[in-house]
Specification:
The protein is 69% helix and 0% strand. It contains four helices and no strands.
């Protein structure tokens, strides 16, 4: 929430999941949710035709870091900031995946 990665409602949902499933399970739920969130973000970038531009932008940041040893954030184009996805869907899918595969992993 502090880094604008998810909304306050998503943080409250993760807190509620921690209260229901316990502290020992919330880290696994968070990992499943993060992996699914990354896949959903990559899918949205690909569908909206912004995947190549995003890869170039992160490559540029990596090259700047390798040359200067300083992190420099390259701003995305204004249109890229408008892509939104309800992260609650990803959280619920992460919980289902954790529940199905939790005993295996």
């Amino acid at each position: 929430y502090l880094f604008n990665g998810m909304g306050a409602g998503d943080v409250k949902a993760m807190a509620a999941l921690g209260a229901v499933w316990g502290v020992s399970s919330i880290f696994s739920i968070f990992l499943f949710t993060a992996l699914l969130g990354g896949a959903a973000a990559a899918g949205m970038l690909a569908v909206h035709g912004q995947m190549i531009e995003t890869i170039k932008r992160y490559g540029r940041m990596g090259r700047i870091f390798l040359w200067t040893r300083k992190f420099y954030y390259v701003e995305p184009p204004p249109m890229a900031g408008r892509l939104r996805f309800p992260y609650g869907v990803v959280i619920s899918c992460g919980v289902v995946l954790w529940y199905l595969l939790g005993n295996i992993v």
